[in-house]
Write a structure and sequence with these properties.
The chain is an alpha+beta fold. Helices cover 46% and strands 23% of the residues. The chain has a 4-stranded antiparallel beta sheet with strand order 6-5-7-8, with helices on one face. A hairpin with a 5-residue loop joins strand 14 and strand 15. Helix 10 runs antiparallel to helix 11. The longest helix is centred in the N-terminal third of the chain and has 32 residues. The protein is elongated, with a radius of gyration of 27 Å. The N terminus is likely disordered.
Length: 445
């Protein structure tokens, strides 16, 4: 992705488009394929499977008579079943009256209620399954920290004279016995002043007393997209050495410097790959989870702190990875719903909503940060789209399910006029949301 970005003039724009289409394309395909495959299992024939809207740029017809196509506007997709009037799956009432018995038997509106419900709900749940699978695969690939405090990775530092090595098992820190990395973290947090740490390690059956770097370094583990840090050019792996000429020795020092600045520009001196860089950065006032289910405002630049050394990892069981993949998907759903609730309560600004431009920017920045971050973004976006589509808004999957609940209670579907009226209302709501989110994107630009 960075190779594309380096193409003069077009590089950054092209990499943004490619990253955006890559993220949205995967998520939309899985969503629509969920509708398609469950509909097929239920005996409902799909006439068209489209990725994108507008002008068709490629298409082919399979042996079942379904047209698979790519369209020019990559902002979604749809499956058109027999009996649908368009991409929103509104019943084609006039067309249904002219269908033969064999066509009606394969149409979506004529299918039994439970089959229609299963077909509709399959799209969002396909998104949840995709997210869970990605999270589980990342856990299997990256591994989980070992229980023993064994060094698995060392963060690159300006001073590399420390004696700690990968695969060292840490027995004592500053004269205190430790059994896990949490205890090392506590010891480091209580050091005053912070500095090099005296560590007793077990290395190839020998106990050695070595010098280790202070654990809570002012290093950058990752950078939030669309943040002050991202705009300033901070990258994962950077070490912040100074802020406005003042020495920064710990990540807490960096946080204090950011808070003290308010929203005025800070000049950061950063060590990166053996070189020192000056990066001006202007912190922003942003809403941040307060840890109690609410949000608080905090001046921040959008970086996450790194540790001087990380624990070794081991490959977990597939069952552990699968459970935690699902758990992480559920956590993102809960976090998103909590954010929406606080927007309605006025505790969280609706300007946090991202539109297509914002998602494209996030996709590009995340792709530049590495493959695992990009794949994680696909899982996060997939979770969000699955959740959004379950909202009871006509035009969305949740709106169709709302009609089916009405039909199950009343014994017959809503009238033609009722469906058309609610679909029109839903269309207006979706368009207004898109306009508002795009307006937010433009204001951020």
């Amino acid at each position: 992705m960075e190779l594309i970005s380096n193409i003069p003039f077009f590089g950054d724009f092209l990499s943004t488009i490619i990253a955006f289409v890559g993220v949205l394309g995967v998520v939309v395909f899985v969503h629509e394929y969920g509708h398609y495959i469950v509909g097929r299992w239920c005996g409902i024939h799909s006439e068209k499977f489209s990725l994108g809207f507008g002008q068709v740029i490629w298409s082919r017809t399979d042996r079942r008579g379904t047209v698979w196509q790519l369209a020019a506007i990559p902002l979604g997709g749809y499956v058109k079943f027999v009996g649908d009037r368009g991409a929103a799956s509104e019943p084609d009432f006039d067309g249904l009256e002219e269908m033969s018995e064999s066509e009606l038997s394969r149409s979506f509106p004529s299918a039994r209620l439970y089959k229609r419900a299963l077909t509709v709900v399959a799209g969002p749940f396909a998104n949840f399954i995709l997210a869970s699978v990605i999270f589980a695969a990342l856990i299997l690939w990256q591994g989980v920290a070992t229980e023993k405090p064994i060094v698995g990775e060392l963060f690159a530092l300006p001073d590399q004279s420390y004696g700690l090595q990968i695969d060292d098992q840490i027995l004592e820190v500053e004269g205190q016995a430790v059994t896990n990395f949490g205890e090392i973290f506590t010891i480091a947090s209580n050091m005053d002043p912070p500095g090099a740490m005296e560590v007793l390690v077990l290395r190839k059956d020998l106990q050695l007393l070595v010098s280790a770097p202070y654990l809570l370094i002012p290093g950058v583990h990752s950078v939030d997209p669309l943040s002050a840090a991202s705009d300033a050019g901070l990258k994962a792996g950077d070490i912040v050495v100074e802020a406005n000429g003042e020495a920064i020795n710990t990540f807490a020092d960096l946080q204090k410097a950011v808070v003290a600045s308010g929203d005025t520009e800070i000049l950061l001196n950063v060590w990166r790959d053996g070189f020192y860089l000056d990066l001006p950065i202007t912190p922003l006032l942003r809403e941040f989870p307060d840890g109690n289910g609410g949000f608080t405002q905090r001046v921040m630049i959008g970086v996450y702190g790194a540790l001087a050394y990380l624990p070794a990892t081991e490959t977990p069981t597939p069952w552990y990875a699968a459970y935690n993949g699902v758990r992480r998907t559920v956590n993102y759903i809960e976090f998103s719903l909590n954010g929406i609730k606080h927007m309605f309560l006025g505790n969280l600004s609706p300007t946090n909503l991202q539109g297509p431009i914002g998602i494209a920017q996030i996709s590009k920045v995340t792709a530049d940060q590495g493959f695992t971050r990009f794949i994680s973004l696909i899982a996060i976006i997939s979770t969000g789209i699955g959740m959004l589509n379950l909202f009871p808004i006509p035009m969305l999957d949740g709106g169709h399910l709302m009609f089916y609940v009405f039909e199950a209670i009343r014994g017959k579907p809503p009238s033609k006029k009722t469906i058309q009226a609610f679909m029109s209302i839903g269309l207006v709501m979706v368009l207004l949301l898109m306009v508002f989110a795009t307006y937010n994107d433009l204001m951020r630009l």
